[in-house]
Amino acid sequence: MREEDMEIAIKVVVVGNGAVGKSSMIQRYCKGIFTKDYKKTIGVDFLERQIEVNNEDVRLMLWDTAGQEEFDAITKAYYRGAQGCVLAFSTIDRDSFEAIETWKKKVEDEVGPINMVIVQNKIDLIDEAVVHSDEAEALAKKLRLRFYRTSVKENLNVDEVFRYLSEKYLEELSMVVEDDTQMLTIGQGVIQNDVKSNSKDKSSKNKNDKNETISLKPHKKRGKKLLMSSKCDLL
């Protein structure tokens, strides 16, 4: 397979309390469907979608994790290796909003800092909201994360969430490749300088060796003067 034909795979985990719409979001994004029926996720579920971002083929692997604490031991293992994370809460569930920081910590405890977004889902139910818009924006600012308001039912901003995470990962990937290229260039420069330096040292050494051979060549007249000088000192 040629390098230009290789795809980029990105693992994204979607976390948050139960019933905030995590499964529906992934179903909507990957299959284009929506169902009102709530079905609790047992452990984890997995779907994927192929997209194109900045002329790059990207395979998004989306992991839907259970929001109930009894599944923590199972779901934590699936956080590992993730390059992106969606922290989701519901417009009509105050507890899910207040748990966002806890979910963020759970993920970072397993994988360290990765690209994340905060998603306020079910904004089609804004008339029943128990989370004020200013609160959500303040939390996103505090955690320094991008914030999206989505409606899986209306398919509002769902694509934008995953596209943003994909673009952020590609940016980081590009920076890593650029750094590696610079290091390789620097390394090659050091090698070339070493070669030049070694050649110069060898040339200088050869020249010095030649000069030393000439200076050590016997010279009768000079030897005689030195001998006479020594005798004068003794007298």
Automatic annotation (TrEMBL):
This is Ras-related protein Rab-23. It is a lipid-anchor. Its EC number is 3.6.5.2. One of its GO terms (cellular component) is autophagosome. One of its GO terms (molecular function) is GTP binding. Its cofactor is Mg(2+). The keyword Membrane applies. Its main location: membrane. It holds the Pfam family Ras. It is found in: Cell membrane; Cytoplasmic vesicle membrane; Cytoplasmic vesicle, Autophagosome; Cytoplasmic vesicle, Phagosome membrane. Residues 195-229 are annotated as: Disordered. Interacts with SUFU. InterPro entries: P-loop_NTPase (IPR027417), Rab (IPR050227), Small_GTP-bd (IPR005225), Small_GTPase (IPR001806). PROSITE patterns: RAB, RAS, RHO. It comes from Patella caerulea. PANTHER family: RAS-RELATED PROTEIN RAB. Residues 197-212 have a biased composition (Basic and acidic residues).
